[in-house]
Design goal:
It comes from Hortaea werneckii. The chain is an alpha+beta fold. It has six helices and twelve strands.
């Protein structure tokens, strides 16, 4: 199932939307936080396409979510309150409930990025240390000299949502344990990242703390290729039971993806 289908929402009334959290996008049995965030983004997109279409503000530029309680698979209801409607930006408050439990709440600001004409200036910012250069056209065939694809992420059976992406890591390893450089895309060949999937991307990353608790990089291409799945589990000492719940998630969006 594509991410777009897994996060599909239906309009119940002018300010109520429904979704259905799907298996395969979970950590354990709990819907992945980024997946839930992407569904929020779909709700807001639908709301500004329908109820607030006259605002002409299709792009989310800021998002803040607080995860109050764990979500679950199955039906979910999203209630939207229009908090501030303006000419340049509009703000909505969205609440996710399941079985009458309020589970996730958020404030989302929308605007029209394509109409922005404010000041823009170079900052001189660069990634430090710089990641290895990549020939993106060679990633699909895993023939890039500096980047290698993993067959799957560690603990993929438990962290099921990780099976929805492809990942490439530096063949020579990371610069250090506390840094992760990664290329990623959705596993479904026809799927492309959109602005509405940014929450999923932002929350889908290696757990850096595991490098420190284990003493080695369990996400490296070399580690996967030198050890079978059973050997990997033994070396990682059953740490799949560790769970990193999403407590809050913020997005600050500067561009609209093509």
């Amino acid at each position: 199932m594509t991410l777009a289908n897994a996060t599909a929402v239906q309009q119940v009334d002018s300010h109520t939307y429904s979704a259905n959290f799907q298996d395969g996008w979970t950590i354990g049995t709990v819907p992945h936080g980024g997946y839930v965030t992407a569904t929020f983004q779909q709700v807001v997109r639908k709301h500004f396409e329908t109820t607030l279409r006259k605002q002409h503000q299709p792009h989310t530029i800021t998002l803040h979510l607080d995860f109050l309680r764990r979500t679950q698979l199955g039906p979910a209801i999203f209630k939207v309150i229009d908090k501030k409607l303006g000419r340049q930006t509009s703000i909505v408050h969205v609440t996710l409930t399941q079985d009458d439990r309020e589970e996730v709440v958020g404030y989302i600001t929308n605007s029209n990025i394509e109409k922005e004409d404010g000041a823009s200036f170079p900052t001189g910012w660069n990634i430090t240390p710089p990641p290895p250069p990549a020939n993106v056209s060679k990633l699909d065939t895993d023939t890039d000299e500096l980047w290698g694809e993993r067959a799957e992420m560690p603990f993929a059976d438990f962290r099921g949502a990780t099976k929805q992406i492809r990942t490439w890591f530096p063949r020579q390893g990371q610069h250090e344990f506390s840094i992760v450089d990664m290329w990623t895309c959705l596993k479904e060949p026809s799927s492309r990242f959109t602005n509405e999937s940014l929450g999923f991307v932002a929350d889908m990353f290696p757990q850096i703390i595991e490098n420190h608790t284990l003493g080695f990089d369990c996400y490296s291409v070399e580690f996967e290729r030198q050890n079978s799945k059973e050997e990997q589990k033994k070396l990682m000492k059953g740490k799949a039971t560790m769970w990193y719940p999403t407590l809050l998630l913020n997005l600050d969006v500067k561009k609209a993806l093509p």
